[in-house]
User: Fold this.
Amino acid sequence: MLFASQAVAAETPLYLDEDAPIEKRVEDALSRMTLREKVAMCHAEGKFASAGVPRLGIPDLWMSDGPHGVRAEINWNDWGYAGHTNDSITAFPALTALAATWNPELSEAYGNAIGEEALYREKDMMLGPGVNIYRTPLNGRNFEYMGEDPFLAGELVVPYIKGMQRNGVSACVKHYALNNQEVWRGHINVELSDRALHEIYLPAFKKAIIDGGSWSIMGSYNKVRGQHACHNELLLNKILKNDWGFDGVVVTDWGGAHDTREAALYGLDLEMGSYTNGLTSESEFTTDHYYLANPYIEMLQKGEVPMSTLDDKVRRLLRLNFRTAMNRRKPFGSVATPAHYDVAEKIGNEAVVLLKNAPAVPKGQPLLPIDPSKYSSILIVGDNATRNLMAGGGSSELKVKDNVTPLAGLEALYPGKIKYTQGYAAGRPMYGHADNIPAATQDSLRSRAVQMAREAGLVIMIGGLNKNHYQDCEGGDRLEYPLPFGQPALIDELRAANPNLVVVLLTGNAVEMPWADKVPAIVQGWYLGSMAGKSIANVLSGTVNPSGKLPFSFPRRLEDNAAHHFGTISYPGDSINQEYREDILVGYRWHDTKKIPALYPFGHGLSYTTFEYGKPTASAKTMGADGSITVKVPVSNTGSREGKETVQFYIGDEKSSLLRPLKELKGFDKLTIKPGDTAEATFTITPEALKFYDPASSSWVVEPGKFKLYIGSSSTDIRATLPFEYK
Ligand code: BGC
Assistant:
């Protein structure tokens, strides 16, 4: 005879037992499901939800964009905002800004904080982070990614994922792969070499999956070698699931599925947003018509695709569900807390890049940090000083609870000293409308600003791009490289009116700066979210010593960028196909190897103090397959303020059977050094860091011979080199 408690225990299904191994739970749940229940899990049931198994008590899966905060609630089945009053959140700095910190600890804090906000909003999966490589400064979505270098992006994406998933919230790394432009994003077919694929465009995704352990990944809209990326034999079945051993869920981008048979066979697990453009257009069909809904049931029943394809998808979806929605041990989460604002501000503080800091007049002091005692008034000019830069931009748009604008940040620091004028108009973020402000409006705003600049002690222009369509915004690329809205002329005239001019650029992209030689101080301030104004004021005032370094190159002219060098077939393609003709020479790899200097190179960023690099020491001069060389370099703070310096380690192969870039980033060490102190940066060279992808053998190889380690404060400011040999 059974006691009551034993009877209950015996009846508890294995899949509900959180102490049982997850694979056993998955098999148990799968064995209880009908065909229709299984297929229902493989596609959306609302804009941002997919079905669980109600009969078995398995909950739905709820998702949200991503990647800089939890997006406001969207209607169940259209793109309108639901109008809730409890969905305001913290906006964290955009991912380009995170990349500019070169600080993995901050990335972990970012992932954790956003995971906590997702929990509060009852989300199981966040649609981010994005690690598409920065290929052209025109890409409208670069601000959502982590720059041009696969090593840097990989080092920063891993802690973000771990920090987030610790909360029982899945990351969904996107957009896999080769979605490096918004023009024709839904269909452009990317052709590229195996080397470019494996050396440049895949490594950050690979780290996200293998080292970060991301539970899901989003396929991209574009085609790759003739097949849509969301059902792509090479990218999904071979590389992701076979070679990298991914056990999570492949989600389409919204509307990225195009064919039932391919979706069944080529690696897709969850179909979302079909028959829409992912942004504005709506479907007239219900989700039953999705490729992985009724049409899939039909094909399965006719035996046209094997049942095993369905079971594989459902196993993955159940695994994801147990890790997130069904995880009853996860915390409750929190939103817009002082702790989250603190994380946002700290990231902002380390993200801001001081591009240039010269005196306004010969023999004067550099303009920054601001010395308020010198000026009776400080004039702030620019639309971005007051604009809500979280509005617009596409799916990463955020509804913030609090927002400190740069103007508010500076007014708080210098009460009574600050004056403001807009300087230029930029219009509202709206799809389908390139900004079209009448010239007369711009002229009068500019004249007023120039007039006020003449009377001010110091002028700080806070401009850049914004989140309007055709600026830093999804669904279109920028139409031109220069600053928009008449800003180049405004900068020229402000400079003529007042030599004490600081230009702060809030952008997610490089811009043309023909005025750079004339302007004494230039700051790259990104999109820094809720605490943007604080971080910018912190750096301009010297409360924080800047330590950000560029995660991508700023070419002098657009033609100096590798993708643009090869004409329209390389960017944006002929509307059907596109060839990545620059191959592996992306970003600084191109500028370095082809000797086309960038205006501001990858890794560049100044400080208010000075750092001197000492002589590096190496544990050996040669290494073999099992060996390694540890390099140490002393760095002294020779100025009068505490500062942080990111010591960058690049490796170049002196002679190779295939073309290699002059050098590639393989390590970095961010040091905090007090004035007068010396700290030591460390880097260990391993054979992994010397390898290239050999297309003949489809594997990573290292060739014996001479290599050189470059130790620098940027990719061009090399302070020491160390030759070594691989035998
Ligand atoms: C974007 C994705 C986003 C999805 C859901 C698509 O338009 O490309 O990044 O996660 O919409 O909003």
